[in-house]
Amino acid sequence: MKISEIMTDMDYGPAPEAQDIVQDWLGRHEAGFGHFIDGTFTGAGETFAVTNPATGGEIARVTQGTTADVDAAVAAARKAQPKWAGLQGHQRARHLYALARHVQQHARFLAVLESLDNGKPIRESRDADIPLVARHFYHHAGWAELVAEEFPDRQPWGVCGQIIPWNFPLLMLAWKVAPALAAGNTVVLKPAEYTPLTALAFAEIAAECGLPAGVLNIVTGDGATGAAIAGHDGVDKLAFTGSTEVGKILRRQTAGSGKGLTLELGGKSPFIVFEDADLDAAVEGVVDAIWFNQGQVCCAGSRVLVAEAIEARFTERLKARMARLTVGNPLDKNTDIGAIVHPVQRDRIAELVAQGRAEGAEIHQGAAPEGCFYPPTIITNAQPASVLSTEEIFGPVVTITPFRTPDDAVALANNTRYGLAASIWSEGITQALDIARQVKAGVIWVNGTNLFDAAAGFGGYRESGYGREGGREGMAAYMRSPARTGQETDLPALDPVPGGPTGAALDRTAKLFIGGKQARPDSGYVYQVNGAKGPIGLAALGSRKDIRNAVEAAAKASGWANTTGHQRAQILYYLGENLSARAEEFTARLTASGTKEKTARAEVEAAIARCFRYAAWADKFDGAVHNTVSGHVTLAMHEPLGVMGVVAPTEAPLAGLLSLMLPALAMGNRVVAVPSQTHPLSATDLYQVIETSDIPAGVVNIVTGPRDELARVLAQHDGVDALWYVGSARKQVEADSAGNLKQVWTEADGARDWAGSEGQSRDFLARATQVKNIWVPYGA
Ligand code: NAD
Ligand code: MN
């Protein structure tokens, strides 16, 4: 080709990255890799092939981890943990710092290896993945230094099991390993079966840096190996990134085990373009949102929602941009889109697109070479119910859907079971931030997309999982408050007493409180409540239907989330004042149920004090502003979870119930509460106090009855966003929560003195909120 021709067509010539250092390394491991356990590599066991998806060729063999391998790794981690946690923070910081330095020294090697194993363009592994890996270790070296001072009441979990996916293999390792080690945990990590090689290379680097034996253990294998880690009794906390399907399996598998659990799952994230957006910037944004890493990104902007007035113009520009993307050899520095990680994933993408086509969607595609590649794809005319609009495709495929008004945009954006991320494009700050508030997602980018930094938390709402990685909240997820144990007493079954055809008994019975009104139970039955010396009253026997009604009432009271902290504080103070005015009655009620008068008096005082305490917090539990990437600030906002189920402890029936309800209310949640089954009458006495305290109808709902039956209805209900449960059915409740992956916090009865100082802390507020990280241009 002549120079003049090159100048006219401006095509790129091939520019392959050299791969000899990686080929040398692979050559040295031709016999197959073992696991990295207790500071050394085991011999290879039964192995499986690791392939380069761009060529289909085998590049290595790794060992399928057995339960014995997992046992050995957990044992090594267990043995190493006390000493690791016992190091000064500064000493752990030096180790993490060394890991960061060594990652940088080996950056080119790691980038090439990542691209070979995963198929991602070298431009991305070199400029995004590996620099972010180093960044994570530096950031968390800092946390290791500070953790004792910054989290004085918390301690490491112990041994962390970590299971990661194939889309950002080494980066996901860094996101998991760095905070775990900084906090004083040791780790057993399993990389994904398609992409295990950079984790093994990292293990070599860790050994080279002198990380103590057993602190980091890497076991390779497939889902069976992952399941062995998740189910291992010696694992104290499990952190998972991957599909929502496996996330739900892990929720059920770990139910009742007391293990910590964080889940970073799938998404179907909206990319919202308003009429006043900078269109060229937004088009470039879509390139980064869906064609970065072949679209195999959990937070990929896979649903473009665009204002109707600019839809045609925007789509044309995007199509023109798509036509200029280069799909091909991942190791070529000019490649925009590399190989799909594995033919199984490529076929899944093709199948979903074919299904969408059959449903009437229009498909527009660029070009891609033969092999494990998929062309960049734009979908128009996909109906909201189409698989293309609802399923996570995990490929370079984006839908474009027009919207009329901002309200339509929000409705479309939130019309998904996921809630990982969202991108909002508008030159109007009011518009952009108003939408940021309304979209249900853990990460929001204003006029940007796929921005990441270790100083900001990352993680989702709803079925995108829970827990955050990065930032302060990411560190908090790797530590726990000292464990509490209580007694495992099951409650007696309740004897239903008929309310009678005339409802005579019902009229003498404490009713339910739903939507601001006292309500008869759907069952028509009541149950007898006993005091120290026999029956002291009747309570309504609530059932599934009553819980459903209560959840519906709570859902309607969504305005509570938008009140100011000051308004909520006023109402909680008023609640405390009204409770105080009736302190004698409540004391008498508690005394009747068998509590000594002095104790009863103290409990009522504690309940009143709780109201004041959480009124105080209502306008003070603030988020943070993170200093992240240049030209941006990241606002970490505390948002309420939504509708919360609250199942109160058996003892301290008044203070216990309020200790759970008040922090939830203070943070803007609505509550469906199940009071102590044994002593429900102080809760039913609250109705009038609530009514006279200006708490809006539906914000507090109370259903008395069989605790565990009602708790399980709450756990299974998709309209419930979070559940706090005190009692003995923790395993069932946690397993039942997997349906919509609501956040659950459980504790045994009697594990703390609810009327004492243990009944209130900042922890309750953290549990009643989730962090939304909003990336805003600043000083650009
Ligand atoms: P996956 O959830 O099956 O795999 C993720 C990790 O979990 C891998 O290490 C795997 O070995 C392990 N695993 C699988 N089954 C397990 C089990 N029962 N117990 C413990 N560990 C188990 O994801 P995948 O099959 O690689 O991809 C399927 C889909 O998941 C993708 O198409 C995409 O939609 C989604 N996905 C999401 C992410 C994300 O970052 N959120 C990452 C990868 C895949
Ligand atoms: Mn591979």
TrEMBL record:
Identify the catalytic residues: 264
Pfam entry (one): Aldedh
Domain Aldehyde dehydrogenase residue range list:
44-480, 535-751
Keyword Oxidoreductase, does the record have it? yes
Entry keyword annotation includes Oxidoreductase: yes
Q: Which GO terms describe its molecular function?
A: oxidoreductase activity, acting on the aldehyde or oxo group of donors, NAD or NADP as acceptor
Q: Which SUPFAM superfamilies match?
A: ALDH-like
Keywords recorded for this protein, A-Z: Oxidoreductase
PANTHER family linked to this entry = ALDEHYDE DEHYDROGENASE-RELATED
The text of the family note is:
Belongs to the aldehyde dehydrogenase family.
Name of protein: Aldehyde dehydrogenase family protein
